[in-house]
Design goal:
Blueprint (H helix, E strand, L loop, with lengths): L4 E10 L4 E10 L2 E6 L9 E4 L4 E4 L1 E6 L12 H8 L1 E7 L7 H9 L5 E7 L7 E2 L4 E2 L10 H10 L4 E8 L1 H4 L5 H13 L3 E5 L6 H7 L5 E2 L19 H8 L3 E2 L10 H9 L23 H10 L4 H6 L3 H7 L15 E14 L5 E15 L2 E4 L2
Helix pairs in contact: 3-5
């Protein structure tokens, strides 16, 4: 099959293949067709000189809110992904069983960028999240809709990758772990992983972790006090280590209130890296402090993680968490997605959710995107 597109001469960083080398990447029929030096172009092949850039598998942002117009926190997925180098945007619970059909028809299906979703166990998802209104959807147990959630998840397995629930004082009031237990029932019924949000207690970090199964995801994992994974002495809590040992995954989910440099420094100093790095982008943090996926990745690069580990946490690790092995890789036969980035050097001001600033010496910048084997941005 003739190549549709060749990215020529970039530094290819693909942790799924333990690859870091200057080489070419070719695409055909919407998939990765070949990786190697001097790949031969056909007369109709779009050849792009990317020798100034780093080529990675298409970035996956495992925690976004992109039900634009359907919820007050939703942002435009295509606009965000173009700017942030994201090829797969995973919406985490914006919609529940009562409004997922609208999300699918009006946002996901028309989108040029891939959108996958965790379905909220609450009937209308995260419906009361704005600058003026803050209503925790898990606070009112009458909104929990496990029967319909199981039905909708089962009927939309092409797009729904798991079940979402938010617990904590701001999202579930004094309901404690009850919404989490209801969501776990649904996840067990449909055989899908669960993503759990956590904010202020109740419940405690330990109570949430104790219920999570192998393959389940705790998002906002590096959040500030209270409900932080680190002790006052800067060590990692035993419950956190035990959860990782049994296969629970830890996701960043930066957002408006869920990432602190202090926590991240303690976790990284103990060798506890996040499984996945995600932005939790929504209307209340897109203008800061999260901004986008590459900014969130940049913070970890500036805190000492190697570029390959940062890329892995936004590609192959996220694909494995989603149980979508065709994503997050440039192996031939994988989905034809790639992201072009550069790493700028200088002085860059980064901010966490509690107002601490970090002056970093590097910044990851999105330089272009390939989706479905075609050059998508910039034109």
């Amino acid at each position: 099959m003739p190549f549709d597109l060749i990215l020529r001469g970039g530094r290819v960083v693909d942790p799924s293949q333990k690859l870091d080398a200057v080489t070419d990447v070719a695409f055909a029929g919407g998939k990765v067709a070949a990786v190697g030096s001097g790949l031969k172009a056909d007369p109709g092949t779009d050849v792009r000189d990317v020798s100034r850039y780093i080529v990675t598998p298409g970035l996956i942002d495992l925690h976004t809110h992109v039900y634009w117009g359907g919820t007050s926190l939703g942002i435009d997925a295509e606009e965000f992904c173009r700017a942030s180098g994201v090829t797969t945007s995973v919406d985490t619970g914006s919609a529940g069983p009562g409004n997922f059909a609208g999300f699918r028809k009006h946002v996901i299906e028309p989108s040029q960028v891939r959108i996958l979703a965790y379905l909220h166990v609450s009937h209308a998802g995260i419906f009361g999240f704005s600058h003026r209104i803050m209503v925790g959807e898990s606070e009112e147990l009458r909104l929990m809709n496990p029967i319909e959630a199981a039905k909708v998840a089962d009927e939309n397995r092409d797009l729904i990758v798991g079940i979402k629930v938010r617990v904590g004082l701001h999202s579930s009031g004094t309901s404690g772990v009850v919404p989490l237990d209801i969501a776990l029932e649904v996840a067990n019924e449909v055989g899908m992983p669960l993503m759990a949000h956590i904010d202020h207690p109740p419940p405690s970090y330990e109570e949430v972790l104790a219920r999570l199964r192998p393959g389940d995801i705790l998002t906002h994992a590096f959040r500030p006090f209270p409900n932080t994974p680190a002790t006052a002495q800067g060590t990692v809590k035993k419950a956190v280590l035990d959860a990782r040992e049994r296969g629970v995954l830890f996701d960043i989910g930066h957002g408006k209130g869920s990432f602190a440099f202090k926590t991240a420094r303690a976790m990284l100093a103990n060798g506890f890296y996040p499984d996945t790095i995600s932005s939790d982008i929504h209307q209340l943090c897109i203008d800061g402090p999260a901004f986008d996926q590459v900014t969130t990745m940049s913070k970890f690069l500036c805190m000492g993680m190697e570029l390959s580990d940062v890329v892995a946490a936004s590609t192959v690790n996220a694909a494995m968490a989603l149980r979508r092995p065709e994503l997050g890789s440039l192996k031939p036969g994988s989905a034809g997605d790639a992201t072009l980035i550069s790493v700028k050097e200088g002085q860059f001001d980064y901010e966490d959710v509690v107002g601490e600033h970090l002056i970093g010496d590097r910044k990851i910048v999105s330089e272009g995107v390939v989706i479905g084997g075609r050059w998508w941005h910039p034109n």
